[in-house]
Every structure is written in structure tokens, then in C-alpha cells.
TrEMBL record:
Belongs to the WD repeat SEC13 family. It is found in: Lysosome; Nucleus envelope. Pfam families: WD40 (PF00400). It comes from Fragariocoptes setiger. Keywords: Lysosome, Nucleus, Protein transport, Repeat, Transport, WD repeat. This is Nucleoporin SEH1. Its main location: other. SMART domains: WD40 (SM00320). InterPro entries: Sec13/Seh1_fam (IPR037363), WD40/YVTN_repeat-like_dom_sf (IPR015943), WD40_PAC1 (IPR020472), WD40_repeat_CS (IPR019775), WD40_repeat_dom_sf (IPR036322), WD40_rpt (IPR001680). It comes from the Eukaryota. The lineage of its organism: Eukaryota, Metazoa, Ecdysozoa, Arthropoda, Chelicerata.
């Protein structure tokens, strides 16, 4: 047999981390360089892990961060320092900064608590570096809020720049990473009470200094629990991964590179976009909880109720296919039996 024509499945090895949280872990977040890891849990704590020279994760810090379950944790770009933000069932968002003392001991200080929400905050994300030190939160009552630190040397002061109502329960939120397009946000909803689209696209109009909803992802009608824009690598479109009852991959293509029309008041109209669902996978055979892109935006990872992490990649014809599977077996071995399904 010609070995050059044999199908060789990629091999992935899972490394276990004994997190020692006392309750369910809700989120795991890598820093910009992938050498630090933050976890948060229903035990109300946050833990930070560092990757050592042997490739093992070592616990660096652990502290109680909220008075309720901590749903999400996110890192700011390291240009602004070692900064984390968390959001919780206790209706607050908190910004934390790592301080290293003269004995080279590190600890995390609470810099600010944001208390504007009246319901559980379900997601929090820092903006891309080129937008400055900004973050967005979304809540179960449908409200999104955007905050900015006017002085990055004083993290105790944050200004709420925008607040708007999505008219449905919000579960997740993500920033578009592109520098050359207007700022864009996608927000997902886990509302199961209606059949309306569960992913909304918002864009910022710099002339009128206002965010507005410009479109919806019509194919996403089931509750959404996570979504994320791929890193922008100069494509003519944006890539969005969606975790719902299945995995969806969506392209968002601007069809006006600049605002060309004006309303009667002379202000610019929102940019027009074309949204296409280019892939949909039901391989998890159940709820999909998380999606995440690699650094080049070419591989999407998803995790679901079937206890697997699945990888998806497009070929040269832009057809998305399964790349590999990691299961939850005790030895962390790759399950090749499902690769070609």
C-alpha cells in the first residue's frame, strides 16, 4: 500500500490540571501569550496558573472574588499590565490587577467593582488593544454596558461609555478584532421562549458616536451559550463561531467599506453587511457549550455535552471539515474512531 495515500489522523494529547475548585468550573481563559491561565468557579474563586519550563501548569494565585458564582474571566492585553476582569451571579463585574512586591511575591488587587447591573452578569470581555482599555459586559436582563478606563495608570476609575438593551436575555458576547473596520460586537442569547434569532450584530458609528444593531444571524434560532470572532488576518470577511445545539461558523462580510449614504440629518447610516452560515456541525450530539479559535483564526475548537473537544478546519476550497477529537478518557488519549464521521 502506498503510505503517502493513507489517511493519518492528527494526534492530540490532553494534559490534566488538578484545579482543586470546590465547585463547577465555568470558564478558563488563556492570557495573550498562552503561558498563563485563569479559571473561575461556582465556589466564588478565581485561580491563576503559570506554565513552567517543563510544560506543567503551576498554581500561582487563588482568591475569593465574588459573593456568588463566577461565570466568566478574561485577560486584558499585556500592554496594559497583568489585568483580569470577572463577572458573577452577584450582579457585579470586578477588575483585578497583579502586583509584585519587593520580595517578588505576587498578589491580585481589586481595582474597581462595577455595580450597574440589576441582574446576573453573564459575560465580560476586554476590547482589542487598538481600542484602548475598554471592556463590555452583558446581563441576563438583556443589557450590555461598555466601560473605559480613561487613565490606564489609574484602574480605580472606569467610565460607562454606552448602555443598550438587546431586548432578550444575553448569555455571551465577543468583539471583532479587526483594526480596519468599525468596532463590532456580537451578542448571543440563551432565551428559549421564542424562535427569534439568538445572535445580534452591533456596530459603532464614529460620526454619531453611537452603537446600533445592524443585523442578526438568522440561522441561529436555538439558545446560544458562547460565540467568538476569529482573529482578523486580512480577510474580506469576519468569521464568527457559535455554540448552540450545534456548532455554526458564520461569515460577516461588509458590502460597504465606508459609509456612503447619509440620512436627512447628515449623519452616516450603519454599514451594510452580508451574513452567511458556511458550516454547521451536529457531531457533539447535544448541547455545545464553548467555542474558541486558534491564533490565526484557521481552526475552531468546540466542546459539548458529549465530553469531547472537537476541532474544525477549512480546506483550500473553504469547505469546513472535522480535524480531530479529544475525549474525556482518563488517560486523555485521542479518539480517532470519530474523526471521519
Amino acid at each position: 500500500m502506498d503510505k503517502s495515500k493513507m489517511h493519518v489522523s492528527p494526534v492530540f494529547i490532553a494534559r490534566n490540571i488538578q484545579a482543586d475548585h470546590a465547585d463547577l468550573i465555568h470558564d478558563v481563559a488563556y492570557d495573550h501569550y498562552g503561558r498563563r491561565l485563569a479559571t473561575c468557579s461556582s465556589d466564588q474563586s478565581v485561580k491563576v496558573w503559570d506554565l513552567d519550563e517543563k510544560g506543567s501548569w503551576k498554581l500561582k494565585s487563588s482568591w475569593k472574588s465574588h459573593s456568588g458564582s463566577v461565570w466568566k474571566v478574561t485577560w486584558a492585553h499585556p500592554e496594559f499590565g497583568q489585568i483580569l476582569a470577572t463577572c458573577s451571579f452577584d450582579r457585579t463585574a470586578v477588575v483585578w490587577e497583579e502586583i509584585v512586591d519587593e520580595r517578588n511575591q505576587s498578589y491580585w488587587l481589586k481595582r474597581v467593582t462595577l455595580v450597574d447591573s440589576r441582574t446576573s452578569l453573564t459575560d465580560i470581555r476586554f476590547a482589542p488593544k487598538h481600542l484602548g482599555l475598554m471592556l463590555v459586559t452583558c446581563a441576563s436582563d438583556g443589557h450590555m454596558r461598555i466601560y473605559e478606563a480613561p487613565d490606564i495608570m489609574n484602574l480605580t476609575q472606569w467610565t460607562m461609555r454606552d448602555e443598550f438593551d438587546c431586548k432578550m436575555s444575553c448569555s455571551s458576547i465577543t468583539w471583532n478584532q479587526s483594526r480596519i473596520h468599525p468596532p463590532m460586537l456580537a451578542v448571543g442569547s440563551d432565551d428559549s421562549n421564542n424562535s427569534a434569532p439568538k445572535v445580534l450584530i452591533y456596530e459603532y458609528n464614529d460620526r454619531v458616536r453611537k452603537w446600533s444593531k445592524i443585523d442578526v444571524v438568522a440561522s441561529a434560532t436555538d439558545p446560544v451559550y458562547d460565540l467568538t470572532f476569529a482573529p482578523y488576518m486580512g480577510r474580506s470577511y469576519h468569521l464568527l463561531g457559535i455554540a448552540s445545539k450545534n456548532v455554526q461558523i458564520v461569515t460577516i462580510k461588509p458590502i460597504q467599506t465606508q459609509y456612503e449614504q447619509q440620512n436627512l440629518n447628515g449623519s452616516q447610516l450603519p454599514q451594510k453587511i452580508e451574513i452567511r452560515t458556511v458550516a454547521q456541525f451536529d457531531d457533539h450530539t447535544g448541547q455545545v457549550w464553548r467555542v474558541s479559535w486558534n491564533i490565526t483564526g484557521t481552526i475552531l475548537a468546540s466542546s459539548g455535552d458529549d465530553g469531547t473537544v472537537r476541532l474544525w478546519k477549512a480546506n483550500y476550497l473553504d469547505n469546513w471539515k472535522a480535524l480531530g477529537v479529544l475525549n474525556d478518557s482518563p488517560d486523555g488519549q485521542h479518539d480517532e474512531s470519530r474523526d471521519d464521521k
